[in-house]
Amino acid sequence: MAKFLYVYHGSGKMPTEEAERKAAMDAWTDWYGKLGSAVVDGGNPVGMSKMVLPGGKVENNGGSNPTAGYTIVEATDIDDAVGKAKDCPILMDPGFSVEIAPIIEMM
């Protein structure tokens, strides 16, 4: 099985109400449960990033498509990884997307 990086992009807001946070966490827990042993690293959300561009220019706030978090999964190929990502709870918010990239083992 190959490993794939899911990079979550978007600028949506984290739920502020306790019930909304619980519902969001339950959705992630359910999705990870469906993925089962395919989840190599459940990942984490990330804070606001900065982009360093050629010439040393720095963009605050993650640029035009900020990273929101990541997960690493195992799948037979990229199409399998894409299929697994289609039920990701982050996609319930139209401001988010999931980028999927194969992890190339160098060593």
From TrEMBL:
It comes from the Bacteria. This is YCII-related domain-containing protein.
